[in-house]
Each structure stands twice: as C-alpha cells, then as structure tokens.
Design goal:
CATH topology: Rossmann fold
Strand content: 5-15%
Helix content: 40-55%
Strand order of the largest sheet: 3-9-10-6-5-4
CATH class: Alpha Beta
Order of helices and strands: HEEEHHEHHHEHEEEHEHEHHHHH
Radius of gyration: 29 Å
Number of domains: 1
C-alpha cells in the first residue's frame, strides 16, 4: 500500500519528498517542492516569452454645462436658449414642483400623508427629462421624479394619493402608458430595457426613459439592464440622478469610479455627464440622446450631477450624517435661482410675473390637496381586483368572504 501511494502521488523527477504518514494509517505524506517563480532576468532567452502589448481602445467622459451657478452662460448657448416660450414653460413648472413639494412635506408632518420622498433640488434634472420626451415615449421613474411626471400629464393629486397609501394614485388618468413609481431599487431599469426592446421588435418609433439614483447604480439590476440594452441596441435612455447621497451613504463610499457616466463603457454605449442643476444642459443632452435612440442609434447613459437638498424621505434626518456646510454650499448651486437669474438677464422674466406665478402655483397646489383629501379611502376588495388579471378561485372565495362579512372600511 505504501509503495502504491508513493507511485501515484510522487514522481521522483519532480523533486517531491516523501515523509512518513500517521503511525498505523498505512499512508504517507507527499510534500511538494517549493514553488518556482519565473524571473525574466535569469531566462537565457527572454525574447521567446515576452508578450507584445498594444492599446485596444481609449475612452473619455465629457461633461456638459451651459449656465454657471450665477445664471450666466459659460460658452456658446444651446438651441433652447433662443426659445423664450419654452424657457418660461420650464421655469413655471420648476416653481410649481417646488411649491408642491413643500406642501407635500407639510402634509406628512401634519399626519395627512404617509412617508414622502422630496425632490427639492432635483427640479432641473427632472423637468429637463420630461420636456425632452415625446408623448408616445414611456417613462420609468423611481419615486421622486415629480417634475417629469407632471410635465407628462400626471396630476398632483395622484402623486399625493400614492404617498397617502392609495394605489389609485398609480392609475394615471391622463398618462396611461407611463409606468408607476418603483420603490424597489433599480427594477425600473429592467422594465425600461425590456420595453425598449419591444419597441424595436415592433418597429415603433418610441423611446423608453428611466431614472436611477447614484446608489442604485451599485445594484446588479442596473448593470443587467444597461448591458441588455446595449447588446440589443434598444431605444432606451438611462439617467443617473447623482444627488451625492444614497440615503446616508456618500458617493465616495459607493464607487471608486471618477464618474458614474463611465459605467456606460462596459455596456458599449455612449455615456455623458451633465450639470443636473442646469436645465439647459439637461434638456439638450436628453433631446440628443432621445433623438439618437429614436433613429436607431441605440441606448445612452446620462449622469446628471445634482444635490439632494432635503432629507432622503420624511422618515430620514440627514443632519445626523451630512455636514451643514456641504448643504449650504449646495444651496448656492440650486437650479431654480440659477435659471431665474438667467431669465431676468435675458429679459424673458420680471418680478411682477414672478409674483403672479407664485400665487397661481399656490392655488393649483391647494386645489390638488383638496381633491386628494376628498378622495376617500379605497375599497378593500381593490386588493384582490387589481392584483390578478383573472382572480384565482381560492382568492375569489376570500374576496367574497370579505364582502359578505362586511369587512370593508371604504
């Protein structure tokens, strides 16, 4: 037995040594020789093993910005800068969203709304996205892109209903084909990639647009969606709303990448970084990316640099983890004041119109709150009726029992 093991496990030519095994075991221990490392300096003919290296590809990420924090043009203006009617529409929506957002937080603080995710500071990114989309395109949001949704026809009372715990808020009455909010992180990117592929297979000139936060880019779903869209050249635009914080996790702890836009490189698609507080930059970049996708040029990734001026949600207290000096510095770069200063400088706006707008927006928000509060509670059977296309027999019996027993608060 010992000789047999020596024969199987040890080749004398390899230089291995045989040591006695455990007494009575009938085995021996085979000890391999020390590892031998290749040293090119000691190789008598190193040229035969030398590998020739060359550069296969080079990449770069460009950053787009037109307005300084002071509202001044930093270079040649984009086409949109010469369209005062559109600029004013954009500004009006930005102001409306901010007033609505403030009211929603107040409703939550007074017990009239559930946990709410504020969009304070994101107005240029969100509205720039929505304004660049065509009506037939489809939007796949996270949970705070109210500016995009309002621009595309979602109503403020629907947003309030959703955050009030009523799923009827997801049944957009004037925007039936945009997807509802996606609280699970990054799942909406998969939905967008799949819909974009469907558009391509059907030959429909439509584009899927989706938004994700900086923290969400660490999710596997995001990479899978990006890769699939690139592989299939699907008409999809991915937007990273990089607000610097994934709840309490800062960007520097999220990734070692210099930019998030460079994550497009692995998917083989264009990637660009824009100043997300510059409505001109966001709208222009989105318009180009959507047009490219619609014309068969495939997907794109846009990283919009912005800042979350609010808590993550009303269930969060960002003062526990975020220095006040950082927030104060970010407020000086916020999008609405910047855009207003640009409009004033260009002669497109004045304080009289500003005061009228503030009053108009406040009235619109108050009316939306009235509609929301008058909605009433949903019926309990809605839990069954809107879950399955055809209710299984077992659940149908439960539904009937609920109704027969009068277990309904609606």
């Amino acid at each position: 037995m010992r000789d047999k093991w020596r024969q199987v496990l040890c080749d004398p030519a390899s230089g291995c040594r045989i040591r006695p095994g455990k007494p009575g075991s009938g085995y021996t221990r085979v000890v391999s020789p020390p590892a031998r490392h290749y040293n090119a300096c000691q190789d008598p003919n190193p040229s035969r093993l030398r590998l020739t290296q060359s550069t296969t590809a080079r990449f770069e990420i460009k950053r787009r910005a037109y307005l300084s924090p002071e509202g001044k043009l930093t270079g040649a203006p984009p086409k949109i800068a010469a369209d005062p009617d559109l600029l004013i529409r954009l500004y009006r929506m930005m102001v409306l969203v901010r007033i609505f957002d403030s009211k929603a937080v107040a409703l939550q603080r007074t017990g009239q709304l559930g946990t709410y995710a504020s969009c304070l500071g994101h107005e240029a990114t969100h509205i720039g996205i929505g304004a660049a989309m065509a009506k037939e395109d489809v939007f796949f949001p996270m949970y705070r892109e109210y500016g995009t949704q309002l621009w595309r026809g979602v109503h403020m009372d629907e947003i309030l209903a959703f955050w009030g715990g009523d799923e009827r808020g997801n049944a957009f009455r004037d925007q039936p084909h945009d997807f509802p909010w996606a609280v699970p992180i990054a799942t909406q990117t998969l939905h967008a990639a799949g819909a974009a592929l469907a558009f391509k297979l059907r030959g429909e000139p439509r584009v899927a647009v989706t938004v994700i936060g900086d923290g969400g880019t660490s999710q596997g779903d995001f990479y899978e969606a990006l890769n699939a869209a690139g592989a299939f050249q699907a008409p999809c635009v991915f937007v990273i709303a990089n607000n610097q914080w994934a709840i309490s996790v800062p960007l520097k702890m999220q990734t070692a990448c210099e930019t998030l836009a460079q994550k497009a490189i692995a998917a083989g698609i264009p990637g660009e970084q824009v100043d997300g507080n510059d409505i001109l930059a966001v709208h222009t970049a989105m318009t180009e990316a959507i047009a490219r996708a619609r014309d068969g040029g495939g997907p794109s990734l846009i990283e919009a640099l912005t800042y979350r001026l609010s808590d993550h949600t009303t269930a969060d207290d960002a003062r526990r983890y975020r220095p006040s000096e950082e927030v104060d510095a970010a407020r000086k770069r916020e999008p609405i004041g910047r855009f207003k200063r640009f409009l004033l400088t260009q002669g497109f706006w004045d304080e009289e119109r500003e005061n009228a707008l503030l009053s108009e927006c406040q009235q619109a928000v108050d009316e939306a709150v009235r509609v929301y509060l008058a909605l009433g509670k949903p019926k309990l059977e809605d839990l069954f009726d809107y879950t399955f296309a055809e209710l299984p027999e077992s659940l149908r019996a439960q539904r009937d029992a609920f109704i027969a027993g009068g277990v309904n608060h609606g």
